[in-house]
Every structure is written in C-alpha cells, then in structure tokens.
Design brief:
Oligomer: single chain
Strand content: under 5%
Shape: rod-shaped
Number of helices: 2
Order of helices and strands: HH
Number of strands: 0
Length: 108
C-alpha cells in the first residue's frame, strides 16, 4: 500500500511538473512571439526611415548640383566683369594719355 501511494505521489508530482512546464513553455513561446513582432516593427520603421533619408539625400544632392552650377555662373560673370573693367580702365588710361598730349595726333 505504501508503494502504491508513493507511485501515486510520483505520478501526481510528475503530472503537476509537466503541467507547470507546459505553462512555462506556453508563456515563453508567447513572449518570444511578441518580442519577434516588436523586432519586426522596429525593422519596418528603420527601413522606412532609411528610405526617407535616401530620398532626402537624393534631393539634397540635386540641390547642391544646382547651387554649384549657379555659383559657377556667378563666378564666370564676375571674371567677365573684371575683364571688362580692366579693358575699360586701359581705354580710359589711353584716352587720358592722349588728352594730355594734344599736339601729337596733329603732327602726323
């Protein structure tokens, strides 16, 4: 009889342990599933942020290219303007020199 009670106690303990383990497995599986969903959402969000940043980078590159083109045009105009000022200054100097020596042009 004692042996039968010991066997019953073992069986009952084993059944309770199995039940506890099954509950733990269920809890851990649920936690793992939720954690996986959280990571998937984070990945999705990061992919969206990356795509948005890539779009912004493309826009900024185009803007920089346009700005550089504009700066080059301004620089070209500045160089042209400086050349024209220099040419005008040379003509002015020649005219002033000729104005100082009025008799030279008449002698020829």
């Amino acid at each position: 009889m004692l042996k039968k009670e010991v066997e019953n106690a073992k069986s009952q303990a084993a059944a309770e342990t199995k039940k506890d383990m099954d509950q733990q497995i269920k809890i851990l599986t649920t936690e793992s599933d939720w954690q996986e969903k959280v990571y998937e959402q984070k990945i999705t969000i990061l992919e969206e942020v990356t795509k948005s940043q890539e779009t912004k980078i493309t826009q900024l590159r185009a803007e920089v290219a346009g700005t550089l083109d504009h700066v080059h045009k301004i620089a070209e105009k500045a160089v042209e303007g400086a050349s024209q000022v220099k040419a005008f200054q040379s003509v002015k100097e020649i005219a002033l020199e000729q104005a100082r020596k009025p008799g030279q042009g008449e002698e020829k």
